[in-house]
């Protein structure tokens, strides 16, 4: 780990590249022996699929793991951008597209038995779908909306593919563009849906003027009460709980705000009323923004970032990285799915399957 925090002088890293692309400036014959060794170590890792900073990550992924390409877009369209939810009824992972050239209703799936990748015909269609999660027999999909349709969250029957509206407003004020969604059942012994609602649709020019701030909401699945619970993030994005439902993780991703760009995942405790308190920094991305978040059964936190999928322990220590550089044109992995011994990597214009050594849920 010392290589990540102590380098010889005259080094430079382009912050759009992964750590292994740190270079030493100047002719190699002018470098000290220590700098030459560090340069050789960094260069060797450029051709790897993973970078491990701990034995825990090595044991998690395994020595023989190799990503397998399942599907690619012939037109380089980003058809596999968001989502990443395992659906047990069909043994599939569902995912959604990026904006593509026009607003779309694209929702796709990967069959984990056959590896077939296909588009789903959901009716009524969901406008500009984004985050996806599974809960008690339904697949919940965030709709970012457009200038006519408000942002919303829909539940989809995975067998009939029929969608129904769950929520699209707070006291008559239109939601912005719900980005990601998760669920809890242990907090107060109630069933809650939690989701992020940044003003991304408006910021990117396809949504109407916001009526609400960029908030994180809690929705009571029994009473339909919708409540803003976090109101001080710039662009709340990914959201997830640990398995015990004692820690909430939310990424704040605002790279386009001059002087105020954020690349942070925050962790929150919960008070007796099940409301987030004691915000603290869990992690900061060194490349790109932190997007989708998944927490496995051992409370490792997996985050899609600008250099791939970074895996951290519950304290925020970086265990290792599944590098995205060779998986898609940008190297950015916005989201993914983890199930059993499988990672489905949503690599924008491609979908990959990675079989790993350890079982994760």
Reconstruct the topology from this structure.
Blueprint: H1 2-5, E1 11-13, E2 22-24, H2 33-45, E3 50-52, H3 55-61, E4 68-72, E5 82-87, E6 92-96, E7 107-111, E8 117-119, E9 129-135, E10 138-143, E11 152-156, E12 163-167, E13 169-170, E14 173-174, E15 180-184, E16 192-197, H4 200-203, E17 215-220, E18 226-230, E19 236-241, E20 248-253, E21 263-270, E22 276-284, E23 293-295, E24 301-305, E25 308-312, E26 318-323, E27 335-347, E28 350-360
Task: Tell me what you see in this structure.
The chain is mainly beta. The chain folds into two domains: 2-6 and 14-45, no CATH class; 51-360, TolB, C-terminal domain (Neuraminidase), CATH 2.120.10. The protein has four helices and 28 strands. A five-stranded antiparallel β-sheet has the order 3-26-25-24-23, covered by helices on one side. Strands 5-6-7-8 form a four-stranded antiparallel β-sheet, with no helix packed on it. It starts with a helix and ends with a strand. The mean pLDDT is 93.
Key features?
single chain; 361 residues; mainly beta; Neuraminidase; 2 domains; four-stranded antiparallel beta sheet; 28 strands
CATH architecture of the largest domain: 6 Propeller
N-to-C span: 28 Å
CATH homologous superfamily classification of the largest domain: TolB, C-terminal domain
Query: How much of the residues is beta strand, in percent?
Result: 35-45%
């Amino acid at each position: 780990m010392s290589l990540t925090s102590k380098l010889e002088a005259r080094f430079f890293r382009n912050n759009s590249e992964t750590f292994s692309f740190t270079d030493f400036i100047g002719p190699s014959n002018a470098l000290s022996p220590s700098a030459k060794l560090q340069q050789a170590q960094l260069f060797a890792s450029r051709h790897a699929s993973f970078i491990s900073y701990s034995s825990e990550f090595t044991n998690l992924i395994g020595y023989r793991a190799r990503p397998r390409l399942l599907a690619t877009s012939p037109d380089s369209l980003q058809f596999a951008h968001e989502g990443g939810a395992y659906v047990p009824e069909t043994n599939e992972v569902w995912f959604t597209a990026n904006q593509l050239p026009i607003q779309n209703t694209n929702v796709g799936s990967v069959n984990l038995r056959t590896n077939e990748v296909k588009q789903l015909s959901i009716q009524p269609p969901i406008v500009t779908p984004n985050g996806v999660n599974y809960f008690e027999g339904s697949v919940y999909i965030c709709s970012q909306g457009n200038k006519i349709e408000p942002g919303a969250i829909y539940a989809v029957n995975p067998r009939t593919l029929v969608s129904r509206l769950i929520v699209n407003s707070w006291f008559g004020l239109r939601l912005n563009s719900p980005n990601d969604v998760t669920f809890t059942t242990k907090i107060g012994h109630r069933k809650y849906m939690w989701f992020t609602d940044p003003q991304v649709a408006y910021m990117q020019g396809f949504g109407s003027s916001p009526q609400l701030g960029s908030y994180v909401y809690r929705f009571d699945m029994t009473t339909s009460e919708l409540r803003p619970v976090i109101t001080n993030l710039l662009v709340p994005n990914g959201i997830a709980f640990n398995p015990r439902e004692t820690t909430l993780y939310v990424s704040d991703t605002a790279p386009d705000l001059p002087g105020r760009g954020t690349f942070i995942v925050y962790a929150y405790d919960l008070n007796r009323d099940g409301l987030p308190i004691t915000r603290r920094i869990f992690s900061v991305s060194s490349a790109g923004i932190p997007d989708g978040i998944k927490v496995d059964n051992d409370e490792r936190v997996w985050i899609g970032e600008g250099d791939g999928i970074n895996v951290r322990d519950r304290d925020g220590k970086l265990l290792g990285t599944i590098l995205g550089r060779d998986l898609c044109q940008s190297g950015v992995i916005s989201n993914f799915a983890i199930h059993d011994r499988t990672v489905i990597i949503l690599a924008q214009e491609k979908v990959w399957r990675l079989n790993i050594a350890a079982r994760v849920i």
